[in-house]
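HOLO CASE FILE
Compound: zinc ion
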Amino acid sequence: MILPSNEQWMRRALACAVRGGQAGEVPVGAVLVGADGTFLGEGFNQPILCHDPSAHAEIMALRQAGELCQNYRFPGATLYVTLEPCTMCVGAMIHARLAKVVFAAREPRAGSLVSARSLLDSGFYNHRFEVEEGLCAEESSRMLRAFFRQRRLSAQKQMEEQLSVMVLGKHDKAD
Ligand SMILES: [Zn+2]
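Model generated. Tokens follow.
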């Protein structure tokens, strides 16, 4: 059996991110791969859809893997994620005993592996995992930028529509 490459796994995570974006969520996707190189779980960011603040892509992938493996720990597993994980997700990855996390783009404000802070170096965890970054980073960043640009445009359009309703309303009164 020929196992997919790192890049192929990250492309699958990017495809998950696209699904999130189509659902109106911030497009982030994740795929968990077992120690033997086989697929364990995947997910996309969906806190709005799920009414669940913990429904980040990484958590969704871990939950699916948990169902599949009937276990909550995945020693030797690698998680591919399109954006640098937040504090919550790094915590969950430590609890899951992952061996490695590969992320695409950095998250300058909340990224908790290398950007805003390096949680693994905090000294209070009893497990560490290897970190690799930059794989397909440009594609992930482009997708995120396009999503936020689109969101700004629709917010602007909505505001303009509201303003025109207000202006028209006043105009009606003046008549
Ligand atoms: Zn997260």
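CASE NOTES: The CA atoms of residues 113 and 119 lie 6 Å apart. The chain has five helices and five strands.
CLOSED: yes
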